[in-house]
Amino acid sequence: MLIEIKNLQKNYLMGKIEVTALTEIDLQIRKNEYVAIMGPSGSGKSTLMNILGCLDTPTLGQYLFNNVDVSSLTDDELSAMRNREIGFIFQTFNLLPKMSSLHNVELPLMYGGVDKHERKDRAERALQRVGLAERMHHKPSELSGGQRQRVAVARALVTNPGILLADEPTGALDSKTGDEIMALFDELHNEGNTIIVITHEKEIAEYAHRTIFLKDGMIFSDAPNS
Amino acid sequence: MQFEENIRVALRGLIEHKFRSFLTMLGIIFGVASVIAMLSIGEGAKRQAIAKYQELGVTNIIVRDKNLSDAELEEVRAKFSQGLSLSDAEAIKEIVPGVEEVAPQSEKSTEVKFADKSSKSTLIGITPAFIKILNYETAKGDFIDEQHYDNGMKVCVLGAEIARTLFQNREPVGEMVKIDDQWLEVVGVMKSKALFTETVGELASRDLNNDVYIPLSTFHKRFEPENELASELKQLTVKIESSDKLMVAASLLEEIIKRHHYNNKDYSIVIPYELLKQEEKERRIYNILLGAIAAISLVVGGIGIMNIMLATVMERTREIGIRRAIGARKADIMSQFVTEAVAISITGGIIGVILGVMLSLGITLFTDVTTFIRLYSVFIAFGFSVIVGISFGYLPAKSAANLKPIESIRYE
Ligand SMILES: Nc1ncnc2c1ncn2[C@@H]1O[C@H](COP(=O)(O)OP(=O)(O)OP(=O)(O)O)[C@@H](O)[C@H]1O
Ligand SMILES: [Mg+2]
Asked: For tag attachment on chain B, is the N or C end more exposed, with fewer CB atoms within 10 Å?
């Protein structure tokens, strides 16, 4: 099992009040699954995704990644995991604004200790892959929203992580650019990658093979797409 | 990630954020520069004071005949004092312990003429001991020697400035100048001396470079005193062997003079060493003030750096979050930020040192304040700023690196 979550809970402290964002979450995701996570705003989708991507930690419960309990890992091991095994795509891209696309895509490789030449090579190929070979030396501010998201995708897949986590990757895009991104995801899935996508849109969710529906911090339904 | 790589990341970061780097550096630059300039002003004042008193001789005691009005002069003469005289000099030499040499001198304001030029001057009658006591040197020719003195020869030595005024580019040595109704042969020209801009005790402030020296014997034989009742001598310069005997010698000397002058206060005693100490004490407040200004500059520089850090903390925290999300370890983040801070601080520090040095040179050049840069002030300024710069770079980065990546990314 690639991902196994047992009775997970996440509370946030808002001043003195504890807000429960997720509760009683049990979830299993196999390798090469294509999962969509849906649910109303505030239902805990991003919270769950951040925990899956090891950007955040649960309050209670267990998260096993590749059968390893994530809570037992050191901070450096978690960094390495984020670096090599998980590709995270944010709704708001989160690129470094002063760097060219190429540098942005190179960054994970740099933190992974890949040497300069190979790094550049692989980053260029990743950008080619998302169709941005001509925009390599542009900064994010010189790119359209769709292009920025594609840089973010290139950055997520450049280390060949095997799993892509995308929090509303098409949320800021028009439907045509959204479809282009999703076509790319399809391709990546066919290559054996595991893909988890948060979305509000039914059409986007239909690309996936399984849909998890969250409501009030709980799993409301979890079923294969027909 | 390798060390070299970290440095590259940091430097690239600085270049990518030129303006931010520049602003941060500015605080350090001004902090360092102003500390160096401030401390150099204090040090310059100290050195100037020391030089001034060294000119007077720090182991010397100077006895000056007081400038008295005619009425006062009549009064002290009536009370048996004959003013400063050679017999005072003899008594001091005989009785006071530790006296190395006594140089008597007489003075007279007069005019010196050469060809069609003339210049106001102070004519000073001295013995050959004079040049031994004060570290004066001649630029050309020789000073008054024993032979001149013993024979009361009509020779003179010109101060640097008066020689220039009278002779311009001509060679003065060997020429005859006219003082009052006397013709004297120029045998030497003094080296230029620092100007006395302040009065030190009874020592009138005047340009020593306008003085003309002649043998004391000649002075007494050939020149009319300024006043019928004038004292035989204007000044006695007493050189004591070492400064630890100075105070004892001074009090004994004063006792002798007092008795010789029948308790008339028609003289004054100046001890350059004492004045130096006293001035040092007075300057302490000035130094504290300068130090305070310097400290304030450093703090202001520090606040400047802190401001930039705080203003950019959101952007930087997000940056840290993003880097962490894609795999940077805490150590990677820390080394990036510390390297950035070190690079900024050291570059700013170096520019600050250069600016500070130029500033203090400029102050010396364009104002009448003398400055002197001590190496330790450069180290203090540089060291402090670098520490401030690095701390302010390190601390925000440390707290951001300790957040969970998602908290850093969401930071507001
Ligand atoms: N950092 C936080 N501090 C406090 N509460 C939070 C924090 N992050 C999320 N929450 C709360 O947790 C709940 C779930 O938030 P989450 O962002 O996971 O929702 P979401 O399903 O992604 O919504 P959306 O579709 O609008 O993105 C919300 O009620 C939110 O207010
Ligand atoms: Mg969300």
From this structure: C
Across the interface, of B2, B16, B407, the residue whose CB is closest to A99 is B16
Tell which residue, B165, B163, B108, B110, has the closest CA to residue B141: B163
- Give the model confidence (pLDDT) of A60-77 as tens digits: 999 999 999 999 999 999
Concatenated DSSP letters for A26-68? EEEE-TT-EEEEE--TTSSHHHHHHHHTTSS--SEEEEEETTE
Residue B111 has which token pair? 């005019």
Going by CA atoms, what residue is nearest to atom 17 of ligand 1?
Answer: A46
Strand partners, A59: none
Helix (H, G, I), strand (E, B) or coil at B148: helix
Residues whose CB falls within 8 Å of the CB of residue B364, separated by 6 or more in sequence, listed in order: B44, B370, B371
d(CA B398, CA B188): 73
Is B359 within 8 Å of B367 (Cβ atoms)? Answer: no
d(CA B215, CA B79): 31
* CB atoms near residue A142 (< 10 Å): 12
Q: Where are the alpha helices (DSSP H) in B170-231?
A: 216-222
- Ligand 1 centroid vs A4 CA: distance in angstroms? 22
Rounded to whole angstroms, how far apart are CA atoms A137 and A147? 13
Reported as a single tens digit per residue, the pLDDT across B194-234 is 655 455 555 655 778 889 999 999 999 999 887 888 889 99
Question: Domain residues of chain A, as ranges?
Answer: 31-59+78-224
Whether residue A21 has its Cβ less than 6 Å from ligand 1: yes
Distance CA B250, CA B270 (A): 10
Chain centroid to CA B245: how far?
A: 26
Work out whether the CA dihedral A141, A147, A151, A152 comes out positive or negative: positive
Q: Is the dihedral of CA A138, A142, A143, A145 positive or negative?
A: positive
CA-to-CA distance for B328 and B405, rounded, in angstroms? 10
Q: Residue A97 to residues A92, A103, B17, B127, B316: CA-CA distances in angstroms?
A: 12, 11, 10, 84, 11
Residues within 8 A of B (CB atoms), A 99-118 only = 99, 107-108, 110-113
Quickly state the pLDDT bin for B303 (edges 50, 70, 90).
Answer: confident
Rounded to whole angstroms, what are the CA distances from A64 to A50, A87, A112, A197? 14, 17, 22, 19
The pLDDT tens digits for A181-205 are: 899 999 999 999 999 999 999 989 9
The answer to whether B247 touches B39, Cβ cutoff 8 Å, is no
CB atoms within 10 A of CB A119: 21
Q: Which residues contact B192 (CB under 8 A, 6 or more apart)?
A: B139, B160, B161, B209
| CB distance A62 to A9 below 8 Å | no
| CA–CA distance, B72 with B33 (Å, rounded to integer) | 56
Length of chain B: 412
Tell me, in angstroms, the distance from the centre of ligand 1 to residue B256's CA.
98
Element (H, E) at B156: strand B155-158
Question: Phi and psi at residue A135, in whole multiples of 5°?
Answer: -105, 15
The span from the CA of A191 to the CA of A33, in Å, is 12
Contacts of B80 (CB under 8 A, 6+ apart): B262, B264
Q: Is any ligand 1 atom within 6 A of the Cβ of residue A44?
A: yes
- For residues B125 and B106, give the distance between their C-alpha atoms in angstroms, rounded to a whole number: 5
For strand A210-215 and strand A34-38, is the pairing parallel, antiparallel, or unpaired?
parallel
The secondary element (H helix, E strand) that includes residue A222 is strand A218-224
| Between residues B294 and B406, the one the model is more confident about | B406
| DSSP secondary structure letter of residue A133 | G
